[in-house]
Amino acid sequence: MTVYFIGAGPGAADLITVRGARTLAAAPVCLYAGSLVPRELLAECPADARLVDTSQLNLDEIVAECVRAHEAGQDVARLHSGDPSIFSAVAEQMRRLDAAGIPYEVVPGVPAFAAAAAALKRELTVPTVGQTVILTRIAQQATPMPPGEDLATLGRSGALLVLHLATRYVDRVVDELLPHYGAACPVAVVAMASRPDELILRGTLADIAGQVKGAGLVRTAVIVVGRTLGAEQFRDSHLYSPERDRHVC
C-alpha cells in the first residue's frame, strides 16, 4: 500500500489536479482535513471508501489511521488543502511514516498564492519591477519563526511578499513593512480564493488594516504586498520579443 499526500487545491473542487482526482478515486481510505477540504471532493472517492475527517485528530491519531490501512494493505488518499509543499504539516507526517516503514508519495496541488494571483488577475513577477516572490508567515506563540526570517528582515529585500495565516495580525504586518515598502505600496488580501464566497480587498499599506478588520477576516486568506500588484508601465518580457533569436536554445 501507499499513502498519497494529495494537494486538494485552494478551495474550488475542480482545481484538484487530474492525477489527484484519479488517485482519490482509487483509494479505499481517505483522510481529509474537514475544515479546509471541499466536501464535494469526497464524491470522487469509491462508494465504499472509509472516510476519516482529521480536523479533530492529533498527529498520533492520524498516523495510527495510516498504520491501520497499511496493515490491511489499503492505499490511503491523504487530502490536504492547497499544495503539500508549503504550510501543510506534511513534513512531520512523512517523518512518522518513514519511522513506521510505510511508503508514501506526494501529488502536488494548486497553492493558495496561485489562486490568489488568479483572482487578482496579476502576474506576481513583472519584468524590471519585481522578479522575486517570498512565501512566508509571521511569528505566533505556537510556532515562532526561525532566526533571520522575521518580517522586518524579509521586508528589506523589497520583494513581493505573500503572507499566509496573517490576517489576524494585520496591524503587525503593516507596522513591520511600512519602513521598507512605504505607505503607498499596493496590498491585496484574498480570502477563500476560488470559492463561491471569495473576497478580495485592494488597498495600500496605509489602509489595508482597516479594510481587513472591517471585513472581519481572521483566517483562510493571504496578504500580498509589493510593487508588482500595481505595475502598469513596464518593459515587455524578452520571451516574446521580436528581437529574440528563436534559433538559440
Automatic annotation (TrEMBL):
| InterPro entries registered for this protein in UniProt | 4pyrrol_Mease, 4pyrrol_Methylase_sf, 4pyrrole_Mease_sub1, 4pyrrole_Mease_sub2, Cbl_synth_CobM/CibF, Siro_Cobalamin_biosynth, Uropor_MeTrfase_CS
Key words, A-Z:
Cobalamin biosynthesis, Methyltransferase, S-adenosyl-L-methionine, Transferase
Source organism, top-level taxon: Bacteria
The pathway that the record names for this protein is: Cofactor biosynthesis; adenosylcobalamin biosynthesis
Report the residue ranges that make up the Tetrapyrrole methylase domain in this protein.
Answer: 2-208
**Keyword Methyltransferase attributed:** yes
Q: What CDD domains would the database entry show?
A: Precorrin-4_C11-MT
Q: Does the keyword Secreted apply?
A: no
Q: Which Pfam families match?
A: TP_methylase
Q: Which family does it belong to?
A: Belongs to the precorrin methyltransferase family.
Q: What is this protein called?
A: Precorrin-4 C(11)-methyltransferase
The species this protein belongs to is Streptomyces amritsarensis
Q: What is the lineage of its organism?
A: Bacteria, Bacillati, Actinomycetota, Actinomycetes, Kitasatosporales
